[in-house]
Design brief:
The complex is a heterodimer of chains A (144) and B (82).
Chain A: H1 3-14, H2 18-33, H3 37-50, H4 55-67, H5 71-84, H6 89-101, H7 105-120, H8 127-143
Helix pairs in contact in A: 2-3, 2-4, 3-4, 4-5, 4-6, 5-6, 6-7, 6-8, 7-8
Chain B: H1 11-14, H2 16-19, H3 27-30, H4 34-50, H5 54-76
Classes of the chains: A mainly alpha (144), B mainly alpha (82).
Amino acid sequence: MDLPAKRAADLLRKSYSQDELFDIYELGKLWLESGQHRRAEAIMNGLNEVASDFAPAWLGTAFLRSISGNYEGVLNAAKQALRIAPESIEAMLYIVTAALALKDLSTAGTYLGEVGERIEQGGVSNPHVSRFFKMQLARYQNRG
Amino acid sequence: MSGNVGGPPDPFSLSPLLSLLPSCGNLTRLENLVSSLFARHEKVETLREEAKSKELERRYTAEEAMLRQILDWLAVKPMGGE
């Protein structure tokens, strides 16, 4: 990134507080839930530009890409989220989903193992995570 | 199956991937930001028009589209229970 572009990126980032980023993301999520994907995409893309280190928006982007079957794109977006939030089980499960779709069983197995350990240790608060993990584990075992 | 007959649908059963997305914001708070978001939108519009590179133009275009969506939503949303 050249200097003017970096300065612009810094300026963009400073224009929004952390709470504002969360609140804007929540609107994008609302649109995802109501099926207004183009509106949601504008929100998630905008967040990725103004705050490239904001993990939830990368997960929202991963979801949008999954709708269009762009699993390479899902993988890239989920990896961005995981780079920012290395403990994010949700990001790991998005990676598993994309890896299975891309028939990358090695990557899927690695992250499934990690998520499984975290669930066993009781480090999961989202009730949907365990259910989703079991679904993906079944997919993995059926393909392996 | 859960005993959820007549209740709201289980988000997981509607879209498992979507149910993984975190909930971390508050939409009510966005209502208090109308003025600052509107001002930011005006500023970004100007910055985009004056952008000296395609990269900057792309960034400002993305932010402008995001802000427009928020302002559109705030404009149609009933405020304060009206």
